[in-house]
C-alpha cells in the first residue's frame, strides 16, 4: 500500500526534527553539568522503520514544564503523608525506563507517589480509582503506555473543554484538607489551563499526539512568569537554569512516532464534528483549532459530492411565480429559436418543385347544331375524318375489300420509314435490276400500269417514289420492295407488321403493288394509314404532284385527277376488276384563317356504264369529289383566344404564379355536335425553367387531340423568378 500524503509530508521533516531534539538534549546535559536540578527526561528516541508510525510536520520542542501552584500544593501535602515511597520513586527516576522506545513523562514517579498517598488518605474512593492504581505496583508495558498516551492525546484534542480525570479530583479532595488556602488559586490555574488547552491541541491536529506531547502542550500554555519552586523534602532548591538551547531536530522515529511501533489498533474514523461555538459564548470553550476570541468556520467539504451539495445549497433560491414564468419563457423561447433555425435550414436545402403550367382558358368547346350529314356514295364504303379533331362519319359495311393500287400507299410509307428523306433531298440511288425490266415487259402486254426502265439504270429514291405514286407503276413497287427488304416476301412481312403497328386490324397485305386480289382492307384502316402517311412532308409532296417527268417515259400525269381542285392535295387511286374503283384522298380547308386538313377514303365504286365517265375510275373520282365538298362545307371555326390573351400561368410549386399568353390567335375548327378539347402543355416534353425572361416560350396550347392536333405556342407575360427564401421557408409540402 502506498503512503498517505500526510505521511509523505511528515517524513520530509524527519531529519530536521531529530536535529532539533538532539540540540535540546545537549542543552539539558549542559544544565546538569552546572549542578542544576534536572527533571526526569524521557529516553532518547530510537529510530524505527515501523510502517505504522505517524510523522508530523516539524515543531519546536517545548521547554520543561513548570509545576503550577496546585501541583506544588498537592506534592507538599502528599509528601508529608507518604514519605516512604520517595526513595523508590527516585530510584526509578534515575534508572529510567527499561526500553528506550518508551518515552516516560518526567512526573510519572511523582504521580505514582501521589496516587499511593491519596489512596491511603481516601480509602473510600478506592474502587473508583482502582483501575489506575493497578499500574502502580509494576511498570507499564511500553506498548500499553503508548496506546494510553495516544488515547489521552486524542481525547484532549477532540474535547472542547478537557474534564478533570478521577485522579485529579481525588488529589484535589485530599489536598483541600491540607491546604485550603490554595484552593482558589489552583482552581483559577486549572480553568486557565482548560481554556488554553484547545489552542494547543489545534497545533497538533494534523496527527494523533502521544502523552508526552500532551503534557508539553499543557506546560507551554502556562504563563512564563518566573516562580519560586517549592522544594520537596530532602531536595535542594534548583539553581537558575541557562536559557534553553534551540530544540534539536527529531530523528526518523521521534517521541511522537515511537509509540506507533507497537502497532496499536487503528482508531475508528471520527464522527461528524460539532458546529464551532465562539469563545466565551454560553460558557463553552471554542472548537478545537480555533483561537480564543475567534469565530469558528465550517469544515471544508471532503468529497466532490459534498462540494456539489454545498454549491447547490448556496445557489438555491426560492422559485417564485415570476421566476418560473421567466424560466419557462426562456426555455420555450430557446427551443422555438432552435426549431426555427432547423426548419429554416431544412426548407432552404430541400429541392424546390419543378414548375408546372396551369390553364385558365376553357378546356373544351362544343359546337352547336344537329347531327352532321355528308354526301356519301350510295354504293361501296367511305369514311372521312379531320386529323386532330376526330371522325366526321362513315358509310358502307366496312368489310375488308380488295385495294388494288391503293396498296402502293403502304409500300411508299414503309420505304420512307426505313429510308427517310428530307424535303428537297433525292435520297440514295437505286439500281434497276432485270426483274423490274421483265415486269415492265410482262405488264405492258397485260394492261398493267408500269414504267419503262433499263437494267442497270440508276434511279433516286425520290424518283422511284414518284413513279410509284403518280402513274402507279407495278414494276417499280416490286423494285422498291427488293431494294428495301431483299425479296418481295420479306418486304410483304414489313408491310403487315406496319399495319399491325398502326392498328389496322382489318388489313391483309400479300404483295407490294396490290395486283393480287388477296390484299384487302376497309375504309377505316386505310383512313388510319392515310393520316399517318400525310404527316410525312416528302410523302405529302409526292402525292400532291399533278405530273412529273419520268426517265424514259417523259411527262407523266397523276392518275388522281382531283389533285389541285376543290382543295384536294392527294393521295392515291386504285382500280381493278376485282377491286372496282378505289380512292384515298386528302383536302385542305381554311377555317378562321387556319388551314385544316380533311382525309377521306372511298372504296368499291362500280362503273355505271360503258361510255365515257361511266367507268370505275370515273365513278370513284366523281363520288369522292362530292364527298370532299360536303365535308369542307361542314367545317366551321370558333375563336378560343386572341394573340396576347392570358391562357394560363406557370406555377413554381411554392405559391408563385407567372401568367402565360398566346403568341397567336387560337382558332378551333369543328362541325355541329362536335366537342373539341383544349389543353396547355410544356414544349415538346421539355421542362419549365425555374427562372426565365418575359416573352420566353414555355409551352403550347393544344387544340384537339392526337398527333395531328393543332398547337399554339404560349410565352411568359413577365419574368419568371426563382422562389425566394420566404417561399421556401413557409412551404408545407
From TrEMBL:
PANTHER family: D-ALANYL-D-ALANINE CARBOXYPEPTIDASE, D-ALANYL-D-ALANINE CARBOXYPEPTIDASE DACB. GO terms for molecular function: serine-type D-Ala-D-Ala carboxypeptidase activity. Residues 400-590 form the Peptidase S11 D-alanyl-D-alanine carboxypeptidase A N-terminal domain. Belongs to the peptidase S11 family. The active site is at residues 405, 408, 472. Substrate binds at residue 572. Residues 237-249, 262-275 have a biased composition (Pro residues). Residues 1-301 are annotated as: Disordered. GO terms for biological process: cell wall organization; peptidoglycan biosynthetic process; proteolysis; regulation of cell shape. Keywords: Cell shape, Cell wall biogenesis/degradation, Hydrolase, Peptidoglycan synthesis, Signal. This is Peptidase S11 D-alanyl-D-alanine carboxypeptidase A N-terminal domain-containing protein. Residues 85-108, 125-165, 182-196, 203-236 have a biased composition (Acidic residues). It comes from the Bacteria.
